[in-house]
Amino acid sequence: MGEVAAPLLAGFSIALIGVIAQNPGSFRWAGLSLLLLTLAVGMLLLSVQSGFHARQMYWTRDELLPWFAGSLNETSEKAFSGMHTTHLQLWKKWVDRTRRSYNSGIILLMLGVAATLAPPTAQASDLISAADPLFRWSAVVVAALLAVAEFIWWWATGKEGK
């Protein structure tokens, strides 16, 4: 999520923001599209940052032992175990934040795409074909349904872990 998908989707969102900002008259809801896509970028970048923090808290005993000179005694074993428990709890919190921000970013991205796809108000002579508005509105509905599906997926998978 936070290492590959979120940065890729954030970059796509930024590119789409650039397209809309250059020619807002070509979009029915340019301002709404820009707002939703900017929020998506923010949530996806938050996902990246949260993923970095989560990774810092996740380590194994074998990864950390080389940092200790000599062998561990009973006192240092207890401290080591307590530190590991604390870090695992922090890791779980950061992973949850990563997941929440990623899913929020996906939902906002799909809503931004839906707003971008809405056909601009145009004269009949500007239309590519008479069916063009129907196809564009169909695309809006599909993008909105994908946002709803992502929300349902997020909600359903979140319940499994509890």
UniProtKB/TrEMBL annotation:
<feature type="transmembrane region" description="Helical">
    <location>
        <begin position="31"/>
        <end position="52"/>
    </location>
</feature>
<feature type="transmembrane region" description="Helical">
    <location>
        <begin position="102"/>
        <end position="122"/>
    </location>
</feature>
<feature type="transmembrane region" description="Helical">
    <location>
        <begin position="134"/>
        <end position="156"/>
    </location>
</feature>
<keyword id="KW-1133">Transmembrane helix</keyword>
<protein>
    <submittedName>
        <fullName>Uncharacterized protein</fullName>
    </submittedName>
</protein>
<keyword id="KW-0812">Transmembrane</keyword>
<keyword id="KW-0472">Membrane</keyword>
